[in-house]
Amino acid sequence: MSQFLIADDHPLFREALKGALLSRIEGLTVFESDNFDGTLAVLSEQEDLDLLLLDLHMPGNGDLYGLIRIREDYPSLPIAVVSGSEDLTIVSKVMGYGAMGFIPKASSSDDIAYAIEQILEGESWLPESIKDKVAAITVEDKELAQQVASLTPQQYKVLQYLHEGLLNKQIAYELNISEATVKAHITAIFRKLGVYNRTQAVLIASKLQLEPIEPSA
What we know:
Elements: E1 2-7, H1 11-24, E2 28-33, H2 36-45, E3 51-54, H3 64-73, E4 79-83, H4 88-96, E5 101-104, H5 109-120, H6 139-149, H7 153-163, H8 168-175, H9 179-193, H10 198-206
Parallel strand pairs: 1-2, 1-3, 3-4, 4-5
Helix pairs in contact: 3-6, 7-9, 7-10, 8-9
């Protein structure tokens, strides 16, 4: 008996992936989520998950933040990133930040099933076309991941809004919280990231952003 969580905001892709997996893995239970908060809720409720299939661009995920945060909170949970891109920089960071596999959405059902089989056996998996091209992440990237992992999801939302150039009162409106709470979050963000102003915080946030990727499935 296995339990997977598919975290992706495209219902048709979730349905197709779920169908492909159920037809190949006997006794499989599949949970679904379509945003980061929902993913965290399922993770907290289901303690026996065997695999998380994670879309980087899911709402609330903050691109690489979602992977870093989940890896920090659930260090023993195998994570496979499922993406519409095979960009080597992204793949390298994904694997460096703790994913056990990177599965393009254009992969065949057989390739996806094989990738998952390898991951469940404790092996990492990458497409043959990029397997030998993925680079190790830098020391700077590792330090960045450690800093970002210390942020709560709410603090990371505030950091994203800082990156977008919003004022404190605008952030307060977007998150439906007081300006005092926003200021408290910003103080905590500066402390955790080891920075002293918004410009430095925004530079760190920029390093976690991914270019928009058109879904291939």
